[in-house]
Amino acid sequence: MKIPRSTLEQWQVLQAIVECGGYAQAAEALHRSQSSVSYMVAKLQEQLGVELLEIDGRRARLTQNGTALLAKARELLGDAFQLEQLATSLAEGWEPQVSIAVDSLFPVELLVQVLRDFEPWAKHTRVNLEETVLSGSEDALVEQRVDIAIASRIPSGFLGDVLMDIEFIAVAHPCHALHELGRELEVEDLGRNLHIVVRDSGTLNPRDHGWLSSNQRWTVTSPHTRLEMICNGLGFGWLPEHKIRTQLEQGLLKPLPLRVGQRRKLSLSLIVANPEVAGPATCRLANLIRKVVKDGIVHRPLCG
């Protein structure tokens, strides 16, 4: 059995020197003496037979070989930290907190059912719920703010499963000018009317899902505000059908008779940020989301 000549501790010291800008700064950050930091890097270079650092003024910089080797070492350090997190999770049982980002398109009644089913299992686990629009859930995953996300797109580096399809329908108030035309609508008709869209809550890779050909286009931050505006005759928009069933039944909204493109479809996916090290609370919550969506049954509590 081969035993590595270098240690994770040595690579961690090298990483600290690079990130902190020098031996003294790394020693302070690691709560070590500068001599021990210097010795560990010198020993690492001796063991490998490769120069890893060069001094540029007062800063220590990686050599070309050092850059390539540290990149791989960072992966190993990340794996080691994940291993320790898994051990901690197994030793302590359920996590003290589970964070979840949920796209605003996810049916709220299903979300409430998931949390209702989760609550008896999680007496000592706090739930941090972040409600997002468009790429907001992706940001939460990439920035490592959440353990679970329900998102309309799976960001690079993550894996997920499709939960459900969301259908959108172009609507306006029955008295809106578009309905008063009394015929099938064309692109040109939409372009002369106010289109109301919701702003992306993400900032890393924001998306623009609005229809861009309209001369008049207003952007709001709240899906509920957009719904109220359109229900009150101000503008048109493509709204998720499951969110507007009541308004359609009450006659507050009416589908636009578009010749093409009246309906759109988008998929929501469930993504566990780190499935290899996910604790029991995270796994339980993710499984409940899958079950509730699959069953599609909402049990309303009885008020006594």
From TrEMBL:
Keywords: DNA-binding, Transcription, Transcription regulation
Keyword rRNA processing attached: no
Keyword Transcription regulation: yes
Molecular function GO labels: DNA-binding transcription factor activity; transcription cis-regulatory region binding
Gene3D superfamilies cross-referenced by the UniProt entry: 3.40.190.290, Winged helix-like DNA-binding domain superfamily/Winged helix DNA-binding domain
Pfam families referenced in this protein's UniProt entry, alphabetically: HTH_1, LysR_substrate
Domain HTH lysR-type positions: 7-63
PROSITE patterns, per the entry: HTH_LYSR
InterPro entries: LysR_HTH_N, LysR_subst-bd, WH-like_DNA-bd_sf, WH_DNA-bd_sf
Family membership noted in the UniProt record: Belongs to the LysR transcriptional regulatory family.
Name of this chain's protein: LysR family transcriptional regulator
